[in-house]
Amino acid sequence: MGKLRVSSFAVSIDGFGAGPNQDLENPIGVGGVAIMDWFFSTRTWQHMHGHDGGETGIDDEIAAQGLPGLGAWILGRNMFGPVRGPWPDESWRGWWGEEPPYHTPVFVLTHHPRRPLRMAGGTEFRFVTDGIQAALQQAKEAAGDRDIRLGGGVSTIRQFLRAGLLDELHLAGRPVLMGAGEALLAGIELPALGYEAVKHVAGDRAPHVFLRRCAP
Ligand SMILES: NC(=O)c1ccc[n+]([C@@H]2O[C@H](COP(=O)([O-])OP(=O)(O)OC[C@H]3O[C@@H](n4cnc5c(N)ncnc54)[C@H](OP(=O)(O)O)[C@@H]3O)[C@@H](O)[C@H]2O)c1
C-alpha cells in the first residue's frame, strides 16, 4: 500500500503556507511568493514546468525526491485556482497550462460539482464533493500500490492531519514573516495525533523538516 504524503510544502517562519487574499495575480496569496522561492529556484521545479536551468544542490535533491512513485494527487480547490463558489463555466483549467506537472489523476476537493477535466500529459482533474475520505479512497483506487501526494493547500492539509490520515509531511521553512494568510499548523496538536519530526536537513535556501505519523 502506498503512502499519503506532502512534499516540498513551504512555510514562513511565522507558520503561514500561503498569503492572504489569493487571486489571479497572487496564486499563493499576497506576498506568498516569498515562501515559495526556494522551490521555484530548483532545477526540479523549472523542469516540471518545461523550463531549462534552475539551481542544483540540496534543495533541488529534496524537491526531486518528492516526485517518483506517485499514482495520484489530491488538491484543495483553491490550489487548483482562484475561482470561488459554483463554477460559472468550465473555462478555468488550473494555473499550469494545458500540460500540468502532475501526470496522474488529481482529485480536487470542492463543494461544487464539475465534470472531470482531462489535460495533456496524463493529468486528469477529478472533482470530489463528498469530503476527504472519499477523495482519499478514490485516489487509492487510482494509485494502487503507488504513493498519493497531497499537494495542498493549507486547509486541505490541515484536514488530513487532523484526521490522522497523512503519513508524511515535508516542510521547507523560509526566513520570512507573513503576518497574515493561511496558517498551516495553528491549533493542531501534532504529537497527540502521533506525528514526530524524524529528520531535518539544512538546505541552501531552506531548512527541511520531515514529519512522520508514527502512531498506528
Ligand atoms: N506553501 C506551499 O508550499 C503551498 C503549496 C500548495 C499551495 N499553496 C497555496 O495554498 C493556498 C490554498 O490553500 P487554502 O487553504 O486557501 O485552500 P485549499 O486547501 O487549496 O482549498 C480549500 C477549498 O477546497 C475545498 N475543500 C477543501 N476541503 C473540502 C472538503 N472536505 N469538502 C469539500 N470541499 C473542500 C473548499 O472549496 P469550495 O467550498 O469553494 O469548493 C475549500 O474552500 C493557495 O494560495 C496556494 O497557492 C501553498
Rg over C-alpha atoms, rounded to the nearest angstrom: 16 Å
Low-confidence spans: none
| Number of DSSP strand runs | 11
Main beta-sheet strand count, sense and barrel state: 9 strands, mixed
SS-based class: alpha/beta
Care to give the gist of this entry?
By secondary structure, the protein is of the alpha/beta class.
Plain-language structure description:
With 216 residues, the chain is of the alpha/beta class. 22% of the residues lie in helices and 28% in strands. It is built from six helices and eleven strands. A nine-stranded mixed sheet has the order 5-6-4-3-7-1-8-11-10, with helices on both faces. The longest helix has 13 residues, at 131-143. The two termini are 15 Å apart. The model has no long low-confidence stretch (mean pLDDT 97). Bound molecules: NADP nicotinamide-adenine-dinucleotide phosphate. NADP nicotinamide-adenine-dinucleotide phosphate binds next to strand 1, strand 2, helix 1, helix 4 and helix 5.
